[in-house]
Design brief:
The chain is mostly helical. The chain contains 10 helices and no strands. α3 packs across α5. The mean pLDDT is 86.
């Protein structure tokens, strides 16, 4: 009887593996993937849910936006991000989505969000295909306007000045237009002066050039 069992059990296991082996292997791989992913998620920002999870729907995974209308937050300076969130909360800068969201955030949450996104490596605006002539014109205008004086030599931003390189084209145009119209402002008044000094076509050319820049290569 014992001998029969000793022979029978391995035989049953072999048959089960032959029938369900691929499914069991798939299940093992899935479990391994879930475990690894969960560990990476926790290491990235603590237990679920992360505060930054709310941002992904508009600003993309880890703040790298795939939508031309929403800005990428990855690689933006901490002081700039904190200031903008507080401006949204106080309605100094108005946005129907960001205003209510920022109002719910505590100072520690704002600090944490800003530090997180500032630490993420930005990626290129890969879904934007610039018009060659507009891009060339925009490059000349950016140089003539000395944008690097505030936004850094590679337009990657620092302190209160945002990263412009690789931002969404539609977002950049919208911000230029808002500065020109006075809908958006900043303490120095420099952006309003610059925006109003350019024509609508000039602003589109500048946005084309900026959106086409690869932040990783600067």
């Amino acid at each position: 009887m014992k001998r029969t069992l000793l022979i029978g059990i391995p035989l049953v296991i072999a048959i089960l593996l032959a029938i369900f082996g691929s499914d069991l292997l798939g299940l093992y791989r899935l479990q391994s993937f879930i475990t690894t992913s969960a560990a990476a998620y926790i290491a990235d920002g603590g237990p679920w849910p992360h505060v930054v999870d709310t941002c992904a729907a508009c600003h993309g995974v880890k703040g790298n936006s795939l939508n031309q209308g929403y800005p990428s937050l990855a690689g933006q300076p901490v002081p700039y991000l904190k200031t903008q969130l507080r401006n949204f909360a106080s309605e100094a800068r108005r946005n129907p989505n960001m205003g209510p969201l920022a109002m719910t955030m505590s100072d520690p949450q704002i600090q944490s969000l800003a530090e997180y996104f500032a630490s993420v490596t930005p990626i290129s605006n890969q879904y934007f295909k610039p018009d060659a002539q507009l891009r060339e014109k925009g490059q000349r205008l950016v140089a003539a306007g000395n944008c690097a004086a505030c936004h850094g030599a590679h337009l990657m931003g620092h302190d209160q000045f945002p990263r412009l390189a690789g931002q969404g084209y539609d977002y950049l145009v919208a911000q230029f237009d808002e500065f020109a119209s006075g809908t958006r402002s900043e303490p120095t008044g420099v952006m309003k002066s610059i925006a109003t000094g350019f024509s609508s076509e000039d602003r589109e050319a500048i946005a084309t050039y900026l959106a086409s820049l690869d932040p990783k290569k600067n």
